[in-house]
Fold each of these.
Amino acid sequence: MKLRIAVLAGDGIGPEVTNEATGILRAVAELGGHDFVFTPGLIGGIAITETGSPLPAATLELALDSDAVFLGAVGDNKFAALSPDKRPEAGLLQIRQALGGFANLRPSVAYAELAGNSPLRPEVTEGVDILFVRELLGGLYFGAPRWWDRDSGESVNTMRYTKGEVVRVARVAFSLAEKRRKKVTSVDKANVLEVSQLWRATVTEVARDYPDVTLEHQLVDSMAMHLMNIPRNFDVVLTENLFGDILSDEAAVITGSLGMLPSATIGGAVNLYEPVHGSAPDIAGTGKANPLGAILTAAMVLRHSAHLEAEAAAIEHAVQHVLAAGHRTADLARGSDPTHAIVSTSQMGKLVHQALTEAIDRRQSMHAV
Ligand code: IPM
Ligand code: MN
């Protein structure tokens, strides 16, 4: 099949991890006879430096004309003093809005091989497999009015949702839950916020169309605690933009490292794929970045934009295989066996590539007999 992928590597460790992820996609294309076309584009701090804008028109055009957009990371301390609308992050928010994907899927899976890596006890993390569905185009991130008046010392952001915005993201969560363990946990702050009351009433209404799926509501503060105490209780977690941003980072504690988490944003004109981790400028260029979040994001590209489920699963198995063999990037060193080898970003990419090639070769030779 043919897939045109816009590759927006961005800032910090973005280019390093993106390089490994696209390498894996190229391998899948070669092994399976697919035609994946990669076109690079600028976004974030690098785009500000080179063009003056965090999302140049050419990038937007490229993205809208692609079948999928793969984004590395944006963020550069160099621009920390700028107002939010001029920072590298503004480019990310603008492209999210332009592509129109409102459901950000963030799986959080506890790999048995990394059990010693989480500060949580293995019996707490064992078997955890949560899918966060984070609403991505509403709430405080995009609500107006928004301003900071330096003279009066007053500032405003607006948390705003329409019923329609809640319905569409809730439907995604329930549909995905139907194919999993059939439970949706909707997270809000309905004891304080009207927006959350609308959210809760709407999700409850949508749930009626999915009789096989159990719905529970949690307040975001107690959810933050339950997530660490009893993460196995959760299947699909549905929540608004900011709560989802915070809880998905918290969930990284279960997997052992933020560097492991992939994401896909669906529902719009073009799907957007980005690892959950940021640009990590402190380790950029040192070979310490973990490319597995980006590589697992590549698997999501195959699953959600190419309908190559077997190939997506093969990448996920290859990652597991490499971890089982004891290979670790620096972020995964904690709590690991002293015999484990610490590998660089590119070595980790090569190891996954090898494991994937071997698995696909095995499958093809099995089919041949
Ligand atoms: C994320 C990031 C972004 C967000 C930032 C970089 C704007 O933290 O994708 O989780 O807040 O959505
Ligand atoms: Mn975040």
Amino acid sequence: MSTVSDSVPVVIIGAGPAGLLLAHLLDLEGVESVLLEVRSAEYVMGRIRAGVLESSTVELLDGAGVGDRLRREGMEHRGIHLQWPEERHHLDFVDLVGRSVWIYGQTEVTKDLMQAREAAGQESHYEVSSVSLHGLESDRPSVRFVDSDGVRREIVARAVAGCDGFHGPSRPAIPDRVQQIWEHGYPYSWLGILADVAPSTDELIYAWHPDGFALHSMRSDAVSRLYLQVDADDDIANWSDDRIWTALATRLGDGQHGWHLTPGPVLDKGILPMRSFVATPMRHGRLFLAGDAAHVVPPTGAKGLNLAAADVALLSRALAEWLRDGRTELADAYSDTALRRVWRCTHFSWWMTNMLHRQGDDFDAQLQLAQLRWVARSDAAAAALAENYAGLPIGY
Ligand code: FAD
Ligand code: DHB
């Protein structure tokens, strides 16, 4: 079978938040790209994942002209509630660091960015297969794939953006001799549900409990998103809806100080593994990694999507200056610049995770509670959490 060949300045592999936002930002910079995605657009759009946008991500989406619906339909939160048995404390990020966060699902961000891509009229291929990367150390890297009609294609580019998530082919295309992997595992997972019921709280509740962590989040005035710490090897089949709601009620403190959790129909449920992972460097030759392709954080603290957005904000500027204006400084600095923020968020996510999940012995539990009380009672400690949660500047 013959291969159809083409060329474009940038091939972007993966149409998650990183790939879609990069495609849009490059378009605004006047740099053409082709976007490749293994899944269907409907599948990508329906994937229930992140829900919290930090202020820098909101500013970035606004600045890129894709923030209108978010401003209309999203929910601005001033902070979060931190809880442990018999105590609930509100941390007000606006008072502490002058920044808020927004609740707006990854599904909605994805929808807005897909519409922007369509409006830009640039080439996107969904449901591709057999994606492979070639010549990354040369001036003419290429990506080969089979499109949804079964046609073999090769696209020659000046740069390849690996935005294909943790399981994609981009990171493995970097030779072992130049790549270092930094990894940390956790002995628990999150069981997440989406529920067709109004949230029982105004802002998110992060709860420490002897039975394990619980989180009450939301997607809208009418839809709740909740999580429970479960064993790493637990099976969703062990968790009936009743068992989930009972555990949530216990851990979130139903009945304490007159507060109640309202259960409702479960629309979606699943168990998500937790890991911290960083691959360095984030550039090899003409391949640039961004988002989950280069790093994964445990979800506590809601950093994953925000980190992906920060990476591509840096990368779009770096590629535009290089490919359009011939200046290579930002592209040369991309990996080091992005990794500064990646490691900061990796630490924050690890810290939040360790503070809130039940693990170890009773001595460890007392240390966790001491830390929670400190964050709740010291403005300095609360501001440190708020500064990280509400989002550090993109180029931090
Ligand atoms: P992905 O979203 O994984 O996108 C990668 C894309 O590449 C996918 O569409 C994939 O299909 C595609 N792909 C894979 N292989 C190929 C291939 N061979 N060819 C072409 N395409 C390919 N983050 C937050 O900031 N806040 C939160 O509140 C939050 N909550 C979360 C809750 C859950 C349940 C989960 C699972 C994650 C959460 N995250 C959160 C993390 C966040 O969802 C991810 O960090 C984010 O999706 C990363 O975006 P990405 O574009 O880098 O990767
Ligand atoms: C959500 C996910 C998180 O990881 C988090 O820390 C807060 C909220 C969510 O999916 O709504």
Amino acid sequence: MNASQPPPIPLRTTGQQLHRRSWAEPWKIKMVEPIKLTTAAQRKAAMSSAGYNTFLLRSEDVYIDLLTDSGTSAMSDWQWAGIMLGDEAYAGSRNFYHLEDAVHRHYGYRHLIPTHQGRGAEHILSQIMIQPGDTVPGNMYFTTTRYHQELAGAQFVDVIIDEAHDPASTHPFKGDVDLAKLERVLTTAARVPYVCLAATVNMAGGQPVSMGNIRAVRELCARHGVPIMLDATRAVENAWFIKTREPGYADKTCAEILLEFCSHSDGCTMSGKKDPLVNIGGWLSLNDDTLAEKARNLVVVYEGLHTYGGMAGRDMEAMARGIVESVQDDHMRARVGQVEYLGELLQSFGVPIVLPIGGHAVYLDARRFYPDMPQDRFPAQTLAAELYLDGGVRSMERGVVSAGRDKASGQHHYPKLELVRLTIPRRVYTQAHMDVVAESVVAVYQNTEKLKGLRMVYEPEYLRFFQARFEPA
Ligand code: P71
């Protein structure tokens, strides 16, 4: 809690101390969306017909949906008002220029190429920068990011610090790059087209990168003449962690920190569905004129004209306004604060979670829920299914199923982290929802005995976690 927290009040009746929160969400609710409560029998039937994969559930069968924070945010009245001001011209929509202005002002990059979502930007970036045989170092992989790099012919090499792979390490910046690992890649690889730096790091548990680290990465890369491309999907959440954890930044605003952070990179890919508070959209930003020209050429093939890139004018307006709202300190305090609330509640019940608590999600350590379950019985997939069966809470597997198979050997990648992500949509759920989630997780944690895990009965060729099907082992 911050320094302006009021002192505790002794309660007259019991003498207990009432600790006062110094803040709540900086908004009130104007419109509600009803959600359905289900019975245990209904959930059992739904889980079975979804092949024990939470991606295959119908959202109407879900009570509290923590599958993802991607595209699930609630927009503000100001954003909805902007929707009505969409200029749906094919070319040169005014909303594109509003978006360009917001990106320039808050992220600082010179060129904006809109895309339908983050992976659209990853695709364009990978195609214009990567040549077959290249190596792309990054601070842990993200599924779609790595996939597009590999599709363009590159090999991905993880250069994140070791602490990131240890769910119990409380390193405040587990997203940091290990400079020695990076230097090794830069000096030995045939060609490195760019370093891919994500902030925060989703697969590590929503963990941030420090300003000190990106500065050092910048210096190292500059010596080797290698550019840095940021995955800025949750860079504002990253800025909040810098503000609250890194010496020297407490008095700076998120907006100031974000600009400084991005200034150490040469461009970014962005999934607008996260930090920027919209349901769909994304962009690619570049500082280099020649590269931007290439990207503008390619975007018309896959996404749309370079002034809409797959988005409607109204979508671009909502995102331009979402960006402005997302960099407000009050917003970030409540956003990251809610994730912290759930995480601390779970910790107080002894539930094994990834520490420190991340920016967009609380990650359950599935290995410690089922210590005797082999990884090829899919402990995290099992835990996600159990959580749904218990209380209708939908979560996401982030373990061996997500990691996929090694191209050469055909074997599963066995990641050290076998996690279930409870991802909090922005401005959507109340504290009572978080309490119910915690109760459900605790119930599942106390009832792990008879579980034998799952067997994969259908495995799709690409990004298998989305559509794979399972049966109880
Ligand atoms: C998330 C997502 C959405 C998702 C994507 C793939 C599998 C499961 C869920 C998307 C990200 C992301 C980062 C750091 C790029 C993308 C792709 N995350 N970078 O966490 O987190 O963006 O979905 O807009 O194409 O649930 P896109």
Amino acid sequence: MSATIIDGKAFAAKVRGQVAEHVARLKADHGVTPGLAVVLVGEDPASQVYVRSKGKQTVEVGMNSYEHKLSPDTPEAELLALIDQLNNDPAVHGILVQLPLPKHLNEDLVINAINPAKDVDGFHISNVGLLATGQKSIVPCTPLGCLMMLREHLGSLAGKNAVVIGRSNIVDKPMAQLLLRDSCTVTIAHSRTKDLPAVVRAAEIVIAAVGRPEMVPGDWIAPGATVIDVGINRIERDGKNVLVGDCDFASCAEIAGAITPVPGGVGPMTIACLLANTVTAACRANGLAEPEGLTA
Ligand code: NAP
């Protein structure tokens, strides 16, 4: 293996430390305690794990955590009424509705009911539009974490060829916007892309967010490229359940200059960036200076 391993776990701990310092200053100097409300509808086991972890980390950095657990058959009007209540609660600076929602609920309608200034997932149509037009917005957590790791590892990204594999709204499109904003030349690839291996081989930065275990082999990677593997796939190997990314780690690490592992790469950064977005939202709500280095 020749690639440098980009340690998302350590980086996330550093980001959480910065968030905690800023929260302490907000409390001491301004009497403001940032608050994050997380809404979970239903009993999806993976979502329950994420929500627990978000609540725990929120408290650990000194912020207030408000958890709202609703039954799987909650009517849309009831969920919208809760969002309205949170929108109007001055103690709540960030609102996150855990996705996916049960099928009877309209995800777009629910997300767009959140006050964009409190939309710490960055999925509200206003935040999407602000990001796309290069204006100040709240940036989705997973791509924000990827960008932070790229900047830390590469310094300036200007002029680099980047490929984003996948065109999802939550990861790939905002990722492409952020790379473009940092002056990369960006290609977005997807399931209909012709000759994907050649497209990936032309890239100095590869972001893989496909959801297909180990789809990208090492011989697609340009020597020295930086590989950010967003995929989280649970597979069975040698009779055990293991987590793997969208890249074949062993062969990619032979060729790449740097690579994020799975687990321990992008995953931990996502919650750290949620906390960063919440402290940023709390500063903006109170007309205070935003913490440096915690947003795009
Ligand atoms: P998604 O909405 O299912 O999107 C997957 C994208 O991959 C689609 O745009 C699809 O293209 C593309 N794709 C599928 N097969 C392909 C192929 N053979 N070649 C090229 N592109 C292909 O997935 P997502 O929500 O973005 O998540 C992607 C992965 O990231 C998942 O493993 C997920 O668990 C992980 N994830 C991780 C984090 C984290 O915190 N680390 C956060 C979010 C997601 P089409 O549009 O053409 O179908």
